[in-house]
């Protein structure tokens, strides 16, 4: 046996078995000893046991929960890596907030429920746990919050695709306490010539097609992350979740998209601690913030930013836990038709500014100034600053912070902030179109979604309508679709095809994110000539004619599960009216129209190869069944105890 595994070094035997314990005495009173739960008294014992000064006990206690991951040395170098950069530095925010609580003579408590990286799990079975993780972690966070019964309020600190929505869901459920969110911010922008963290995920597909060399791929892969912490540089799910959180009033103004690790980022944590104490002192609770008006504001801001379609899953889930009406497809459609897109950011263009520039240009409050002028906001909605939104925007318009940061973007980076966050007139002149469309049709009788603003303009007709008729190439597994896109094997995806990927909804794969597919097509020269239809979801950085969330999903009896190779698919997306259809219209012989397609689908049986992925974890199968019973995808993939109990008992 190797001695270095079994033998104990001499230094390890230098130990003691008793200690005197903390000095001093607990500030107990007759009232406490007679009436306080034993857990409260034992909590004080543990507090001083961990080293807290007993004379400082009795102040308000605040819970800080974060998604921190990894282990950093004092100088920031890694001892153990996190799963992703988005949670790598948030421990610094926890520290800054905790120190501020202590200055205010409050007792901070800190815990963490770390989160996965959707980029790291792309194309792997790890993606089967991504969306289910959100529900599980939100549940654990809620349990941790309730396990600190003496809390006066809760601060959540989170950054990325699943951890931040989970944190928002957990905070929303704190109906009897004040809560505040500190977004973990974004990476710095890379230097000129460096690829962003969205494009760099396509180096494999581009290399196979000879569009980059091995050396170029290696260089690009090394330089994409421009700072060790922060969410990705594009307006994907992480950044959009931060934007929505601020629009809900759940963060201090101008908190979303701050540069990770920078002084202004740490300052937000300190001021958020002060704000949470003030909310507690004033008796402001979470339901005072997360009202239906707040969610209407969030939907308006989402549309103005042109954010990730994954917020269609997360926003209703937050509303469910807040106890307010969940936004429906009709609500999303209304705001996307009413609200102009004003933000030019990766991946939607036209100039593709990184999210750091959106922050410098004024971020959420700057966008809200424009929306206020259009009469699209509910200004009486209360925010965690303790002031209504209208008052916050009055402050922002005249603030030194706004003036100095916008000037910094203009003078140092050479970027006019009004070309990053535009007025409605400028946005129209530059061709910005609204965010999302919800097509119907015989292939999606319950709906689907496309980020219509991200369709390549060169394949959109002059009237603003994307029209495509093409043969289906049907895949049950993402890896087979990727193989075909790379031109490997017998079945190849070629320009003109409609790539159909089914059995990838909640029941098939945990509703995996299929960025491998969409990103490969975006960055291949001929990729814009291919459309994608799937019952899976997309990364927030996905672009192109990519239609997801097709409902019902294949394994729930959806028509998408009846398609065969060479079926003729017709796609019509009106980017101006935000209307669309996806239909089976024919076969290899001819085009017979949508009515023929509806009759044909009704007569067909499902494909014989439909089945859940063989690697689907039992945990995810349970998640899929529970969320399906609770309203499914359009309900936010939540767990609704009432609906689940009713279906279990038949009552």
From TrEMBL:
One of its GO terms (molecular function) is xylonate dehydratase activity. Residues 83-390 form the Dihydroxy-acid/6-phosphogluconate dehydratase N-terminal domain. Keywords: Lyase. Pfam families: ILV_EDD_C (PF24877), ILVD_EDD_N (PF00920). Belongs to the IlvD/Edd family. PANTHER family: D-XYLONATE DEHYDRATASE, D-XYLONATE DEHYDRATASE YAGF-RELATED. This is YjhG/YagF family D-xylonate dehydratase. It comes from Gemmata algarum.
